[in-house]
Amino acid sequence: xxxxxxxxxVGAGPAGxxxxxxxxxxxxxxALVDTxxxxxxxxxxxxxxxxxxxxxxxxxxxxxxxxxxxxxxDALRADGRVRHLPGRQVWxxxxxxxxxFTLRTTATVTAAPxxxxxxxxxxxxxxxxxxxPGGYDRQLPVPGWDLPGVLTAGGVQALLKGHRTxxxxxxxxxxxxxxxxxxxxxxxxxxxxxxxxVEANGTLGWLRDPVGATSAPGKGIEALGYAALMARHRxxxxxxxxxxxxxGADRVEAVRVARVDRDGRPTxxxxxxxxxxxxxxxxxxxxxxLPLMLGVDTAVDTDGSLVVTVDDVQRSxxxxxxxxxEATGVGGAxxxxxxxxxxxxxxxxxxxxPADPATIRRLARAVRRGRRFATAMHRTYPVPAxxxxxxxxxTLVCRCEEVSYGDLRxxxxxxxxxxxxxxxxxxxxxxxxxxxxxxxxxxxxxxACLRGRGSTPEDLRPLATxxxxxxxxxxxxxxxxxxxxxxxxxxxTLEEGGPNGE
Amino acid sequence: MTHRMTFRGVPVPAEPGQSVAAALIAAGIPAWRTTxxxxxxxxVFCGIGICFDCLITVDGVPDQRACLVAAADGMRLGDxxxxxxxxxxxxxxxxxxxxxxSDAAHD
Lengths: 502, 107
Fold this sequence. Notes:
The structure holds 2 protein chains of 2 kinds. By secondary structure, chain A is α/β, with parallel strands linked by helices. Chain A has 15 helices and 21 strands. Chain B contains 2 helices and 7 strands, in the order ββαβββββα. Chain B has helices at 20-26, 94-97; strands spanning 3-7, 10-14, 33-34, 41-42, 55-58, 61-65, 76-77. In chain B, a hairpin with a 2-residue loop joins strand 1 and strand 2 (10-14). The radius of gyration of chain B is 12 Å and the shape is globular. Chains A and B meet through strand 8 and helix 4 of A and helix 1, strand 4 and strand 6 of B. Chain A: It comes from Micromonospora costi.
């Protein structure tokens, strides 16, 4: 068996970086696993530093916070106090009878010849976990959203920040929430014509929200900055408007938009806007596969996301498992950094390491404040309640298995699928490559809507639970039964596509 | 120095540090596979390794996420038909459609 380290931190975004650095500086032995080659997560995604140019970080918020954490990480790595495993994804985590945790990892990218597999990186063992898996853009299906040229807002941002690549020439950025603004201004700065930002909810009313203003004054300044940039680039900002359909034959050619009421029901005539790029974002979905594998308690947050419930120092319901960042509720990078530090210090204190109680109390207060602000944001930018009414029979809901809204409705009407789990079994949404990451929220919402009720954790959980966190080469599974077999010895390159059969 | 790759025989340049997906998009190729059932074109969607829409064969290794694979000089993209999800058939890019024969030898 591998050496058992004090703590494995999963994820090197804002929460995970802060947790790893803080835990190591408090004297704990730390391994940090991250899917990406570079630390920073989605929020601080950046161009490969080996080929960096000045100006790469324009528009990056909290960049100095990131470089501060990264410099500390580099120093700790050099001292051998943090073992950093970039470019590896955890696909299985288990709690052993004696209370330690075993994590199985695989290379994120297998195209490059891996050479002799490094068993020391394949299996990790830890006495405690800090899980910081982050999240990704939440999506709602709409007719035409499967056309090339439709991307998630985060994907557009990733191409810009991580690869200096504008994903089109004329863009519509649509959905809801403040994240649409940096995407739009980032595109405009890169020379893309932003034909419109299409926001389903009202104006930037949260600037006047007393909770928002007192909880995170910096956020107001940030938003004013975006407003100024939008004005400078003459980006039209349309509120109470949604994209009803994406038009095009083999790729995006235009979108059809309509004004809507508070619930998302159209109130006016439709209008066409030409575009070759559509960026959709409806808030974020936390990545819960690893916490769910360990059986942690969950709840539905204000924004409708399934989240891990944690106590006032980020402890989950499972002994030794701390969770920080978006997985405990979508709240942004600043909050995630607080949560990561808090989790690490609480763990250090529990292991008898020096951890200043006053600092822990201060961080816990900052987390509570950040959560209040996040809740205010969720209430300002909800997913419109009537969104399932935008769907037509042929609209794809599950992109991987090509399951349409009509397929789901028939599974309900004709086959009696009364909940998300049964819909998934009978119509196969969420059974493809992405394992329901993209369509999980929507399928749960449709299941509830077909029954004329709201989404429950029971709708969301079967679409967020995965028996394996990521598709892995079959050789990795074979190796589970015989740990001594060098996995690279198998010559199969087949991958398990939809491994989460219920 | 710019990397030189090919997508089904069509030259695709890439800047060092770019992903395969970014290089394809920059080259005006928005889609590189078709779906199993509907035969619909697909390219990049989530851009961060979540959705698996952007699967592509890289140097003969099928089903790689184009958004995560770093571009490299001499890379051959989209060749052969070993992929589970239709990476072999035309992907809605006219220039690429006729050139599949030239890559048949690659395995």
